Amino acid sequence: MNKDRLIFAPPTNQYEKSSLEKESLDSDPLKQFNIWYNEAVRVKEPLPESCTLATASLPSGRVSARIVLFKELDLRGFIIYSNFSTSKKNGDIRSNPKAALTFFWKSLERQVRIEGTTEFISTEESVTYFRTRPRDSRLGAWASPQSQPVESRDELESKFNQISNKFQDIEDVPLPENWGGLRIIPEEIEFWQGRHGRLHDRFVYRKVDGGDSWKIERLAP
Fold first, then answer.
1. What's the whole-number average pLDDT of the chain?
2. Which of 4, 46, 99, 215 has minimal Cβ neighbours within 10 Å of its Cβ?
3. What share of the chain is helix, strand, coil (3-state, %, to 5)?
4. DSSP 3-state of 208
5. pLDDT tens digits, one per residue of 25-73
6. Is residue 198 among the annotated active site residues?
7. What stretches of 7-133 adopt beta strand conformation (E)?
8. For residue 96, which phi and psi values (nearest 5 degrees)?
9. Backbone phi, then psi, for 53, in 5-degree steps?
10. pLDDT band at 1 (very low <50, low <70, confident <90, very high)
């Protein structure tokens, strides 16, 4: 036995809940995602909007990933919000606009993979979303130099208190200049349904010749 191993072959289970056929898929992957997302909400999947955002910095090619909360789906793609000044994802995207998202819904034994190009959304769109956030979350966006070193928790909370005092008489906390929305415009979307024996059902949508139509193919698991 390898004594250097800290974790090895954790117990797992078979996927038995459903299947997926090409005929059941919508021709538009964004509409298909909307169907699956609403099913995840219906079965009360914990945080169905949580997903992994992966980015890569150039020229090093170093990849970083983090869990984020997806907030909007429109006809162009998937939108998340963040600090786009000091965050690691900002540095990656400024050097390389490509990104990927992965959703996993354990209750349904499903995942969705999205690969595409990013674009920043307008300030007006970002303000509309920002106003939906709880007040303390809006203040936190002002207080946190995201991904930058801080000396202590006390320093962070002191900055938050300063910001809170600054805006104490302002009901509509404004959008910070360094904060906003990022849209991932999909070029490829895969729908994955877990199956027995790891013979999963996988279907990928790929753009045809850079146009608006999509080609759907089954992939081997």
1. 95
2. 4
3. 30, 30, 40
4. coil
5. 999 999 999 999 999 999 999 999 999 999 999 999 999 999 999 999 9
6. yes
7. 50-56, 63-69, 72-73, 78-83, 98-105, 110-120
8. -155, 105
9. -105, 120
10. low
